[in-house]
């Protein structure tokens, strides 16, 4: 009985690890307008459960026109929902000012049951965040 229980625990841990490997990687989105304004979002989810985020905004008539913001912390996945956490003592400093605590994104990919030729880009679609501008953003995985 102990052997069977150990086997099931090992299999469930391998499944969780495999899902984290699928999610880890680089994500980005860079919409541009015709007038030269640009916003760049980059997010790296590392295998070790840490992440780094970079946000660059260039608005010609903005004050200032060019701004850069950084964030870092840890992430966890459960049921295709990626939760982000930033430790105020360790992750927030003069450079890394974005606090991702209370941020949740859905990992979106093509269903294994979908046998069509339809191509669906892997992305993280943010659902919740205390960072107001990140809620509607979807970041696509760079492959």
From TrEMBL:
Q: Which InterPro entries match?
A: NlpE_N_sf
Name of the protein in its database record: Copper resistance protein NlpE
Q: Which organism is it from?
A: Flavobacterium hydrocarbonoxydans
Q: Which Gene3D superfamilies does the annotation name?
A: 2.40.128.300
Judging by the UniProt lineage, the source's domain of life is Bacteria
Keywords, sorted A to Z: Signal
Signal peptide region? 1-18
